[in-house]
User: Which sequence fits this backbone?
């Protein structure tokens, strides 16, 4: 079959794509920027990549002919935009019209469970998107999921941050809200299972795991699996704003995303009964098993996708190529070179930089910079990295975005997503036994220049130490 996949670079899309290819489908991936998608790692003749921006005028978007079914996995909440509802509406309308012109038979949409009259902005937006997609000239199948648990998922990483960092938690009332978490493996099974199943056309299904738990129970069971003793005190006086700040400072989420998550977590999310599980022959994975499976993947460095790759400051919405050429004029630079004895060993160190490995020198200063970034509403260092050894263009690396990861030509180029009065690049390159490390900063006005000179002494200390450690 010929399948169109949107949201290819997102958490769910990266999980779904390999399964569709394994089943022999021809998959057309819609991406906004080809540089943020590593098609070569799939090694499949059935994979085709096209650039599509669903915020462009609807009439300008054209899909290839002969598509049997399409997955709509586009969500804007993680973008940090305050007007994510409008972005989701425009994207859905553009997709609906393009899918109708392409005469696609079925569209599969992954939404959120909506079973209360009072919904959060996030869930209202998901429901509005479903209504827009239902107007299309095709059959719509909607899968409504709640909390998704798996290695790299937002829910898993937030729970992990809270449990592993806080022995005692003073928490808001919404921790007593019930929800029905579902393992990422089951989500993908549902998405694949409903493909061109005519009995699912024009219908929506709530999908969840076998357990109904409060958020407090989820945290305590996570702690038990990790062998940690944790104490949780629920207080009635913590406002949604305070709850959002609490989530923002302790976990890796942005403040705007924290606000949307808190508003959603106040709402009970329980599946309405349906026969889809039996129809597709799916064996549901319980919450405890889904946590253990997630850690198995983490320990084996087999995390396929991470929610943080979609968490961006929106700087790169115009595309990676715009920032690939590091500017020379009007910039401040810290450029250092050093001879190395083993190019392969140094390259391995560069490819492992950040995350749990750290930055090789003065890690406490990097942590301080990350904390300051969180104070001013930035992404901080907590996004880490998906894999401790491999890295691809488009992925997050602490408060950087990977623009280029060219191991063959020994070059890694990073672009800063931290809060800055300007733009910053960090580049590592090995040529003829010489390691070149370059930090480039393009200031924005007088404040940008003041910033550069104020941190310059620290840069000298950090960058000198870092390049020496990389060369050892």
Assistant:
């Amino acid at each position: 079959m010929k399948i169109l996949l949107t949201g290819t670079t997102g958490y769910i899309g990266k999980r779904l794509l390999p399964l569709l290819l394994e089943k022999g489908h021809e998959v057309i991936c819609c991406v906004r920027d080809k540089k943020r998608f590593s098609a070569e790692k799939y090694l499949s003749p059935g994979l085709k990549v096209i650039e599509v921006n669903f915020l462009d005028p609807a009439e300008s978007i054209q899909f290839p002919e002969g598509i049997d079914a399409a997955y709509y996995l586009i969500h804007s909440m993680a973008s940090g935009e305050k007007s994510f509802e409008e972005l989701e509406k425009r994207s859905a309308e553009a997709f609906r019209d393009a899918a109708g012109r392409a005469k696609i038979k079925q569209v599969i949409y992954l939404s959120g469970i909506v079973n209360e009259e009072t919904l959060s902005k996030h869930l209202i937006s998901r429901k509005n998107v479903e209504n827009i997609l239902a107007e299309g000239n095709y059959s719509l199948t909607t899968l409504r999921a709640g909390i998704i648990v798996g290695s790299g998922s937002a829910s898993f990483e937030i729970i992990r941050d809270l449990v592993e960092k806080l022995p005692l938690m003073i928490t808001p009332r919404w921790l007593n809200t019930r929800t029905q978490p579902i393992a990422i493996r089951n989500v993908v099974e549902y998405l694949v299972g409903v493909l061109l199943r005519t009995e699912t056309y024009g219908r929506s299904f709530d999908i969840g795991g076998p357990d109904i738990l409060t958020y407090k129970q989820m945290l305590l069971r996570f702690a038990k699996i990790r062998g940690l003793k944790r104490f949780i005190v629920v207080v009635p006086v913590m406002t949604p704003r305070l709850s959002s700040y609490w989530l923002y400072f302790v976990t890796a989420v942005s403040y705007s995303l924290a606000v949307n998550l808190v508003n959603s977590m106040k709402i009970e999310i329980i599946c309405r009964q349906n026969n889809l599980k039996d129809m597709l022959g799916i064996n549901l994975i319980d919450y405890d098993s889904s946590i253990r499976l997630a850690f198995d993947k983490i320990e084996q460095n087999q995390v396929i996708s991470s929610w943080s790759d979609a968490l961006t400051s929106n700087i790169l919405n115009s595309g990676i190529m715009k920032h690939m050429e590091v500017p020379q004029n009007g910039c401040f630079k810290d450029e250092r070179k050093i001879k190395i004895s083993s190019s392969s060993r140094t390259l391995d160190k560069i490819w492992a930089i950040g995350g749990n490995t750290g930055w090789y020198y003065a890690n406490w200063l990097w942590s301080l910079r990350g904390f300051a970034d969180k104070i001013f509403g930035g992404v901080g260092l907590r996004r880490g990295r998906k894999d401790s050894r491999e890295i691809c263009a488009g992925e997050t690396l602490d408060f950087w975005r990977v623009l280029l990861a060219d191991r063959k030509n020994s070059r890694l180029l990073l672009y800063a997503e931290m809060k800055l009065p300007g733009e910053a690049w960090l580049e590592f390159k090995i040529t003829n036994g010489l390691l070149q490390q370059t930090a480039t900063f393009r200031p924005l006005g007088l404040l940008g220049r003041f910033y550069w000179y104020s941190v310059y002494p620290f840069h000298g200390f950090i960058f000198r130490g870092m390049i020496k450690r990389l060369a050892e």
Q: What stands out?
A: The radius of gyration is 23 Å.
